[in-house]
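May I ask you to comment on the folded chain given beneath this request?
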Amino acid sequence: MAFKNRKANYPLYETTHFDNLRTLVENAAARFPDKNALTYRKNPHDAEPSHYTFLELEAYIRDLATEMIAMGMRDKTVAIVGEASPSWVFTYFAAMAMGAITVPIDKEYPAEDLAAIMNRAECEFAFVSPAIEKKGVTLREAVPTLKTVISMGNKEFEGAPSLDSIRAKGAARVDAGDRSYFDYEIDADKLASIVFTSGTTGKGKGVMLSQKNICSDMVQGMYNFQITYKTMCVLPPHHTFGSTINLAGHLAQGCEIYISSGIKYIMKELQEFRPSHLILVPLFVETFYKRIMATAEKTGKLPMLKKLVKVSNALRKVGIDLRDTLFKSVTKNFGGELQMIICGGAALNQNIIDFFESIGVTILNGYGITECAPLISCNRNEYRKNGSVGLPIIGGEVKIVDPDENGEGEIAYRGPNVMLGYYKDEEATRAVIDEEGFFHTGDYGKVEMEGDDQWIYITGRLKNLIIFSNGKNVYPEEIETDIQGVYGVNEVVVYAGESKSDPSKEVIVAEIYPDFDGLKSHGIEDAKAYFTEEIKKINQKNVSYKTVGLVKIREVEFPKNTSRKITRFAIDKSID
């Protein structure tokens, strides 16, 4: 059962104002000097974590930035290639604070792709994680503009100085009276970061963001929702969801961030660190949900869990909330203190949102895109609607372009967080930012008004749109959401099958990566036959042109990028 927790005239939360990332760091250090800012493990197997306080964070960034200025990095493009770590945070914030142009890049890219991006951005400096030092060495020859490679570890490799050694030199300069870091006047409207999107064809565009884009997104966004003061960073930092929301937004509010050592350590870290809220993409939430259900079923407690959910929901209707007691054995797997999950990046099944609400964990579904730095909208702690991705952030405005008879069309957004444009691609920029300053997102949806509030609903991505020869349009995300509710579905992608032998053949395909162990435990041996029958039931509820005509079974999970999003362009869509 879903509880609509909506309040008229729901007040805005307090937020922290900052015009640039240097001010963000200084303000946080002044307000929370001795509080832990970053918590992490130098080695995943260390018994105790290490910490940096907000004052230590400020000092490291100041010292590192001072030496970066001396090395000639101001106004230069600086690549940052690595996993989430204190070193990544130091480098990113220091580069922003001293006037460099950051180019965050996915460390999982092959060396040739890293080089291609650095060449496009004409990078002169590169900070590289020790985990990929072999790639770092090859970049010197592959990127002619590259002057210096720096290791983000505490040791040098192949002549690349360590971050700690750079910081030490900067500290000496500060002690000697160097004020180049403090005296620099930051232009918040100037290009500050180039974020290359993954793209649907594997060739992304360079999104140009200013510090105004990034900072206004968090200043205005934090009016809408209230975070707790203990979270984990599990998202890759080279994406804006990780760098802007998980890092900048939370550090500005004095939140302690535990930096995860990697996906395989997350459950152990949740139980040890006990975060009170998380920033996640849907795949993580779906995995948590399936793990809860699978464990309950394996131990014979699934019927009791479902019964407790019904009892709890009934009690809450009359003002009695016993969730902390009834579901303690479930929530202890996440540390026992988890109150909220802010989720964005893709659609999340409402049934999953409702389940977590039932056990005491509120999910705030939101919406963002790299070109908007990234946050556009979010549901609020006590003001939310089922199926909606929430209200635009303060200062943001949404319109629907060319709406159909149902009010659905392309979502366009205008606000101070809209990008400067695409790097060296004016034509592509003009194609997405109209004369009124609205960015055309490529997402399809509608807006429902409630008083002055714009509630945004997303149907799907225009680039994923299935267009049949009879003129009918199908958004695969709608069908995928229904199929995700079928028992045994781990992952599903819906698309138009491409027949090589008969190009006129049009069929909607549901390709499923099943939970084979779960199916087996239910005595289901023929996955394709089972899912075909289940999808027939879904087809009966849909109009004819939205019916799935073919089920394909995968033996391995779908290919994904490091944000844990399925890369649709990499899927073989042939049906012969």
The chain is about 35% helix and 20% strand.
